Amino acid sequence: MARAVTVELDLRVPAQKFWGAIQDSASVFPKIMPTQFKSIEMIEGDGKSVGSTRHIKYGEGMKMLTHATERIDAVDETNMTVTYTVIEGEILSIYKVFRPTLKVIPGADANSCSVSWTVEFEPAGNETPPSDPIKEAAISMFKTVEGYLLTTA
């Protein structure tokens, strides 16, 4: 049975700027979070459109994970939303299905936004793994991207 975990976070950067960093995550994430992401390599597609596939090599900061392959399943540019599925990697020994959807929502002013990140998942075993590590990793990642965007033009 599918379950879901959601993280919502208010950020102090323009929605379009944050969305741009998400779309360019293959180059941005390893640069600003090298202990979490050693590299992100495009296998197929441009990394921004449906069907794009990428291979992630995680750094030592990602406990118990060394790699994953993700496929983009849906993109809505207008609503700044992307859904992807992990199709290979250690996380699939914990979850049979791991499908995040990220949505960037413009804030009340031009220099703010909210991020909603919902992961649909099915545990691989009979017990549901704790969701706190997933939430904490997402919050840390989004805050790091925010910090990077606040210090760049």
Automatic annotation (TrEMBL):
What are the transmembrane regions? none
GO CC, any one term: cytoplasm
A GO term for molecular function: abscisic acid binding
What InterPro entries does this protein map onto?
A: Bet_v_I/MLP, Bet_v_I_allergen, Plant_def-hormone_signal, START-like_dom_sf
List this protein's GO terms for biological process: abscisic acid-activated signaling pathway; defense response
Q: Name one Pfam family in it.
A: Bet_v_1
Q: What CDD domains does UniProt report for this protein, alphabetically?
A: Bet_v1-like (cd07816)
Q: Which domain of life is it from?
A: Eukaryota
Bet v I/Major latex protein domain: residues covered:
1-152
Which family is it part of?
A: Belongs to the BetVI family.
PANTHER family membership: OS08G0374000 PROTEIN, OS08G0374000 PROTEIN-RELATED
According to UniProt, the name of this protein is Bet v I/Major latex protein domain-containing protein
Natural source organism: Picea sitchensis (Sitka spruce)
